[in-house]
Amino acid sequence: MRVGVVTFPGSLDDVDAVRAVRLAGAKARQLWHGDSHLHGVDAVVLPGGFSYGDYLRCGAIARFAPVMSAVVAAAQRGLPVLGICNGFQILCESHLLPGALVRNNHRRFVCREQQLAVESTRTAWTSAYEQGQRIVVPVKNGEGAYTADASTLDQLEGEGRVVVRYLGDNPNGSARAIAGIAGERGNVVGLMPHPEHAVDALCGPGTDGLGFFTSVLAALSVDLG
Amino acid sequence: MARVVVDVMLKPEILDPQGKAVHGALRRLGFDGIRDVRQGKRFELELDGEVTEAHLDQVRELAATLLANPVIEDFTVRVGQVAG
């Protein structure tokens, strides 16, 4: 089973994402932003960083990278796609997920270990968790405040598509403390915190993030029968 | 040559922390009577030849596609002056 990890110019966390995929037991395939196809991968991770320098808006230029045409088409067919931080911003700019990420309400970059509640385990990326499970993973962003109009927020809540929510202090002013959401089918998930930085107790707050990567393996095993 | 100007602003209901920071600095500098500041972006597009309605339609499309994110931003398109 192969999970593709896209590298854009300015991606930072692609290598950590590759490592997380391997620790979860899958093969990782690095994809380049200029690739026009996905080399047969079974899932895709859009990693954190500052693609294209965050010029214009975070994720706005990456959305039009050649690889994103393939990612968007595959996601619409059901391919599991996880967007972490800048990857979440790219998914929103690509309209694979509703809403947008805007500048933190306190204007500062935030970088800390963050407690989250896993509120939906019905996605391709969170089935390994228990409903309501509390996990700790790093959060690090300057433009991580999730925003959407009230009806979109109500719809996300009503359909159980708020995947993870911040516990304790809201780190960036996200609407309703939303840390991550899923698309309608549950194959596309975006979140601002970084599960790929919490897969090894030696260099992170623990291994609470590994479940995102083991979940997709389980989802793929079911799909592939 | 002609110039088309696209102004992009965050929608009124979206918090603008940068504008708030500028507003705070103005108060510290003693500029009173300014109730609020919001910060936007201005794009100047240089076109070949005269600006036609077709050009403006094209610019509106590219503004909605790339220059602005209609989820959080509004934009206006107008013909601008080219400095001599």
Q: Care to describe what's here?
A:
The complex is a heterodimer of chains A (225) and B (84). Chain A has 225 residues and is an alpha/beta fold. Chain A has helices spanning 14-23, 66-76, 86-93, 150-158, 210-224; strands at 2-7, 27-32, 43-46, 81-84, 100-102, 110-118, 134-141, 145-147, 162-166, 178-182, 188-191. In chain A, strands 2-1-3-4-11-10-9-6-7 form a 9-stranded mixed beta sheet, with helices on both faces. In chain A, strands 5-8 form a two-stranded antiparallel sheet. Chain B has 2 helices and 3 strands, in the order βαβαβ. Chain B is 32% helix and 30% strand. Chain B is of the alpha+beta class. Chain B starts with a strand and ends with a strand. The A-B interface holds A 56-57, 60, 64, 92-93, 98-100, 102-107, 145, 147-148, 173 and B 10, 14-18, 20-21, 66-67, 69, 71-72.
The number of helical runs of chain A is: 5
Radius of gyration of chain A: 15 Å
Task: Describe the sheet with the most strands of chain A.
Answer: 9 strands, mixed
Helix content estimate of chain A:
10-25%
3D shape of chain A: globular
Question: Which percent range describes the beta-strand content of chain B?
Answer: 25-35%
Strand order of the largest sheet of chain B: 2-1-3
SSE run of chain A: EHEEHEHEEEEHEEEH
SS-derived structural category of chain A: alpha/beta
**What's the total count of β strands of chain A?**
11
Largest interface, C-beta within 8 A: A-B, 19 and 13 residues
Task: Tell me the overall shape of chain B.
Answer: elongated
- The unreliable regions of chain A are none
The parts of chain B where pLDDT drops under 50 for at least 5 residues are none
| Radius of gyration of chain B, whole Å | 16 Å
Number of helices of chain B: 2
Query: What average pLDDT do the residues of chain A reach?
Result: 96
Mean pLDDT of chain B: 93
